[in-house]
Amino acid sequence: MPRITPNLWFDTESEEAAEFYVSVFPNSEITNVTYYGEAGPRPAGTVMTVDFVLDGQQYTAIDGGPEFTFDEAVSLLINCADQEEVDYYWTKLSDGGEEGPCGWLKDRYGLSWQVIPVALGELLSDPDEDRARRAMKAMLGMKKIDVAAIQAAADQA
């Protein structure tokens, strides 16, 4: 079975972005960088692609030009074990970027991320529909997810 590798299109920042991402995630590394040759379409010697691994997941970034940009139609989801992980990834990835609602953010390169604690799914799918509704209402008022605040809202009677 072929391995699926997400390919991220940048204008000219693929190597910089890959270096940033591998600095944020554990067990990550840049594995290969290729460069444009004389045939173009970009200047010879400039970065064409960067292959990198984020905690076991392979990615390729390409310096393809300004024709395409990121939007929220595609995002990368980080399933965080606890609030400490949420806080870490939120702080690192939102630095120079833009905070969005409900655990979403755009990093400094415009790539969308969802920084979500595992506990959120449990709270939102609670068999007690009123408890799940209160959790959802609390989450909808947040940017960075606060597990304790959602838990407290869910537990209110």
Write a structural description.
With 157 residues, the protein is α/β, with parallel strands linked by helices. The longest helix has 12 residues, at 83-94. The model has no long low-confidence stretch (mean pLDDT 96). The protein is built from five helices and eight strands. The protein has two domains: 1-68, Signal recognition particle alu RNA binding heterodimer, srp9/1; 70-157, 2,3-Dihydroxybiphenyl 1,2-Dioxygenase, domain 1 (Roll). The strands form two sheets. A four-stranded mixed sheet has the order 1-4-3-2, covered by helices on one side. A four-stranded mixed sheet has the order 5-8-7-6. The protein has helices at 14-24, 83-94, 118-124, 129-140, 147-155, and strands spanning 7-10, 29-35, 47-54, 57-63, 75-80, 98-99, 104-106, 112-117.
Supply database-style keywords.
5 helices; alpha/beta; four-stranded mixed sheet; 2 domains; 157 residues; Signal recognition particle alu RNA binding heterodimer, srp9/1; 2,3-Dihydroxybiphenyl 1,2-Dioxygenase, domain 1
The total tally of domains equals 2
Shape: elongated
Strand content: 25-35%
Distance between the termini: 50 Å
Q: In terms of per-residue confidence, which ranges show pLDDT below 50 for 5 or more consecutive residues?
A: none
Summed over residues and divided by their number, the pLDDT gives a mean of 96
Q: Give the SSE string.
A: EHEEEEHEEEHHH
Q: Give the spatial strand order of the biggest sheet.
A: 1-4-3-2
User: Class of the largest domain in CATH?
Assistant: Alpha Beta
Main sheet overview? 4 strands, mixed
- Radius of gyration computed on alpha carbons: 19 Å
Please estimate the helix content: 25-40%
Indicate the structural class.
Answer: alpha/beta
Q: CATH topology of the largest domain, anyone?
A: 2,3-Dihydroxybiphenyl 1,2-Dioxygenase, domain 1
CATH superfamily of the largest domain: 2,3-Dihydroxybiphenyl 1,2-Dioxygenase, domain 1
CATH architecture of the largest domain: Roll
* Annotation, overall tally of beta strands: 8
Number of DSSP helical runs: 5
